[in-house]
Write a structure and sequence with these properties.
With 410 residues, the chain is α/β, with parallel strands linked by helices. The two termini are 38 Å apart. Strand 9 and strand 10 form a beta hairpin. The relative contact order is 0.15. It has a 6-stranded parallel sheet with strand order 5-2-1-6-7-8, sandwiched between helices. The chain has a 3-stranded antiparallel sheet with strand order 9-10-11. A two-stranded antiparallel sheet has the order 3-4. The chain has 2 domains: 289 residues, Rossmann fold, CATH 3.40.50; 76 residues, formyl-coa transferase, domain 3 (2-Layer Sandwich).
Amino acid sequence: MLPAEQLPPAPNTPPLSLLEGIRVLDLTTSIAGPYASLLLADLGAEVLKIERPGCGDDARAWGPPFLDGESLWFLSVNRNKHSVTLDYAQPAGLDALHALVKVADVIIINQVGRSQKKLGIDYARLKEINPRLVHVSITGFGLGGAKSDQPCYDLIAEGYSGVMDLTGESSERDPQKVGTPAADLLSGTDAAMAAMAALIDRNRTGKGHEIDVAMVESMTRFMTPRIIPYLGSGELPRRSGGTDSVIAIYQTFHTADHPMTLGLGNDAIWKRFCAAIGRSDMASDVRFADNAGRRACRPEIVQAIQSILSTMPRAHWLDLFTKARIPSGPINTLDQVVKDPTLTERGMFYATRRNGVAVPQVGLGIRFDGNSNTHRKDPPRLGEDTRQAFTSWLGWDDDAIQKLDDAGLL
């Protein structure tokens, strides 16, 4: 049995509708752009996912693994959307796209600026069609600058931003990518946030906006807590396996069986921790009285803590630290994450049924008045909503849609 078969169904509460009435055209592929439109769709916006006829979003081919003929990577970021196939590289297809733009509120694009102009989907062109349009570009390096035409993936942005240089066991070992497409998800979040801010301003002024999100810049901003200390101190951090935190004790430790995390972020927590492990002498040691002192003595303290934690299983320590309100936790594998009682109790994971197959989803994880349900529609099959979209958005009849189909544009 697949793990998805064990998930609960989607909540039966009404889905969130904060962006109800907002129409979004999503021309993007892969992860960053689709994640941006996923967030907007989850909050109630109506999203038309414009895809290339025959092949669609690049992520549809990313696999294995596949489920019911679909890439699981694709399924992870495309619920609540309507798939429309349209070849807008052809004049008649571009006319159809421009007709949709005229009644849209937001368009999201992940083509570089030069390609946008060539295809007739750049802000200057679309603003003529719809002055109230919020035009969102997600590119690797932004719409301006020497690298604006360069392609980019999450891996490239992570390398540029410095996060890979600081991720790994030590400076002698290879740098490592984050274990999820962090730059994609961060830039996608930035794009959704910026679109919502632009919509608020548009509703006040009546004017649309051009939004320029660069994956490298989103990922670089993610590094702010490491960049600012370097700029202000001249101390260049190096890979350390996460043991160089500004907080003296903020790292992983081994126990008698499994590793765990421990974060002693202030003096009160430090004192509670010392009491919990039976080392009141450490709490009263003047050398360890504040974080600066504990940092200066970090190797000594870490060695003492490690020798104590190694004597008992992780479950013992987590129970003890929970009772003492000490920040700590397990290092979960993904199979443990999806079974975590705290996350499952809050409805973080669910599955819907399509063709008798359980389609797994990860919820939004944000509650509005106690409600976090977002599910309206399964991730779409390629082009399954094409005719319905042209009818509902533009009022086109079957003959007008058939002409596009006959021309091979759908």
